Amino acid sequence: MDLLWLIFLAGLAALPPIGEIHKQLILLGLALFQLFEGRLLAGSVRWGRPLAVVIKIALATLLIAHTGQVAINSSYYPIFYVPVVTAAMLYGPWGTLGWTATASAAYCSYLWPALRQYSLNPAALEELALRLFFFFLLAMIINRFVMETRRQRDLYRQTAESLAGANRQLQQAQAETRRAERLAALGQLSAGLAHEIRNPLAVIKGSAEMLQQSLQPAAAGTPAVAPDANPAVAHELAGYISSEVNRVNLLVARFLDFARPLRLQRSPVGLAELLDRALADAQERWPASPVRVERDYAPDLPAPALDATLCERAFANLAANAFEAMAELPPGAARLTVRAAAAAEGGRAGVHIAFADTGPGVRPELREQIFNPFFTTKPSGVGLGLAIVAKIVDQHGGRLRLCEDGPGACFEVFLPLSA
Ligand SMILES: Nc1ncnc2c1ncn2[C@@H]1O[C@H](COP(=O)(O)OP(=O)(O)OP(=O)(O)O)[C@@H](O)[C@H]1O
Ligand SMILES: [Mg+2]
């Protein structure tokens, strides 16, 4: 912008009267002022604005005096557009009108000396009126444009501010929701754990009390078991205690699997071998199971960087669920298909692994709950299997979901190739 101004003023300097040193000095003054106007306005808006307009009116008035035989007739009169446009840009409509009137008055002040020598004929008066009229017209057009731009800028700023405010509120609300969700999840988890431990504890307590009643305290020289105690009953009660302790032990071990923070040790793994090991684990646990396992591994399976132990545990849990779901099916009807193929999700390359069975499937109303810790529909289930799978998959940056298609249940895992 400054450069354009300088070119424009240099153009004026190159036009006649060229030898008029005052004219050139005034143009130089205008050019210099134009360059420093920004700083003046930035330093003090209150005084900078009127000063900028006044200086420009003064320079324009001087220029007129040095560019015409009769100043009021000078062809340089449009130089008054400079202060007029400046005022239109810095002030509102009334301020612009006021400053345009001041500039017009400064221009008309040259009527005074001119009228001493010449008389003002109607044609000259019309010409003067036209020039003044154009000062006002230009001022008002520019001011209207500037005001509209300013209004839109304010509107934009207000919108941006309210959007930022809304965004802050949203973030706060999200943080609060997350906190509430975390607390709710923790509460659910603790309640589930307490519930799971209470049942075996009740059995242990009952068995211990009955055992205590059937046994006499061991006195010196007498056998520990009272003559009327039934050793078979005592044996059975002790068996309950032992199996319930085992149950609590298993629960605690599984809970620790779930609750312990996972530290992944990633290394490229052969997926096919990993899946085979998990399936073999399930087959070993249920050697008499009717389930027939079908493997559908893509030939070009990539080797993602995974924690092999944890992923094997996750796949073993999925396989165990499928074996358990199909335990009652007649041989031939129970089929577990394990699919593995390269895939991409959310712009990330990875692998899809699906465990699809022909069991009864998951009822629609349970689809959300089955991933909650301690949710189980099995009499001897703990309800941590899928929660552990979900945690391991999450830690790998992957995703676990229950597919809606297929007759039985189908759990699909996506694991990215790397972190
Ligand atoms: N393949 C499946 N077919 C049908 N239902 C399933 C299947 N897998 C999981 N479920 C349902 O999801 C529930 C939760 O499974 P999850 O593995 O978390 O716990 P669980 O198997 O009951 O107990 P455990 O902690 O011993 O694994 C199961 O009780 C069952 O109702
Ligand atoms: Mg399970």
What does this structure look like?
The chain has 419 residues and is an alpha+beta fold. It folds into 3 domains: 2-120; 183-215 and 229-259, Orthogonal Bundle (Helix Hairpins), CATH 1.10.287; 267-416, Heat Shock Protein 90, CATH 3.30.565.10. The chain is 61% helix and 10% strand. It is built from 11 helices and 7 strands. It has a 5-stranded mixed β-sheet, with helices on one face. Strands 1-3 form a two-stranded antiparallel ribbon. A hairpin with a 2-residue loop joins β4 (335-345) and β5. α4 (81-90) runs parallel beside α7 and α5 packs antiparallel against α7 (122-214). The longest helix has 93 residues, at 122-214. The radius of gyration is 46 Å and the shape is rod-shaped. The protein starts with a helix and ends with a strand. The model has no long low-confidence stretch (mean pLDDT 90). The structure holds adenosine-5'-triphosphate and magnesium ion (MG). Residues 317, 320-321, 385 line the site of magnesium ion (MG).
